[in-house]
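Internal ticket - ligand job 291, pantoate:
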Amino acid sequence: MERVGSKAEARKAVADARAEHKTVALVPTMGALHDGHLALVRAACARAEYVVVSVFVNPTQFAPGEDYDTYPRDIDHDMELLAAEGVDLVFTPSAAHMYAEDASVTVEPGPLGNRWEGEVRSGHFAGVATVVTKLLSIVRPDIAFFGEKDYQQLQVVRRVVADLDLQVTVASHPIVRDRDGLALSSRNVYLSAEERAAAHAVPAALDAAAGALAWGERDARVLERAMASVLAEEPALAVDYVAIVHPASLEPLETVDRPARALVAARVGATRLIDNCELVPPAVAEGEVRA
Ligand code: PAF
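stdout (structure tokens):
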């Protein structure tokens, strides 16, 4: 496994792989890798002959006052994990190398980037869209992998790729959860034992929505209230939003009569938790109604 820090070295390594007619996959990450990232890496290794993982804590997607400086970083451990998975290239640029001092062009993701997380984290998705576009332009993979944990990010990336005619397939991977149900996230290391216990209410709220849907409830407001009441039982949680949305546009739905997505965001202490799940109404699941 090779590690490179410059765009030129990354381009050269990928060009060498292309010269051997290898298909190329990219897994963009911010490091502090966990099993969720490794599931993406494994999916990439199964789909492509040359796998690139970028490890870059992207400053432009952190709003002022967020945790850019304290975001967990452990490149030595990340390298060990990636070597064990059989990754070919790890791209670890510095922020100064990624962004020219006078860089002024950004990728604005449009309305999809302004709702939900975008409302709470101003400028976040422009930062994500810009860095992902740059990484895709440097590596030029056939396929790029993103986790469903950051569901809105996944939809933003899909829009960027579609609207800018980027020649890459975007692949996603389901959320990987700990045994206690909490979605894996590099930021979970911030949680104290008490906060972690409180955080269980987040996946429990999603289960409540899925359970009510399975019992026949299709009114999105009722499902949202079911989620909110589970979260309300946990006083340590401050809820940012619960929403039942269209799976691609993320616009709120009135009725879940086709596959939808349930979104939750809440804060516990200084840590922000986001989670989501697919909602498939039973008739659709049984094939009676076409989405
Ligand atoms: O999901 C992440 O880790 C980041 O948002 C990404 C996609 C690597 C862009 O910095």
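Auto-summary: Residues 28-30, 58, 61, 128, 131-132, 150, 153 surround pantoate (CB under 6 Å). The beta strands are 2-4, 24-29, 50-55, 89-91, 143-147, 169-173, 237-245, 260-268, 271-279.
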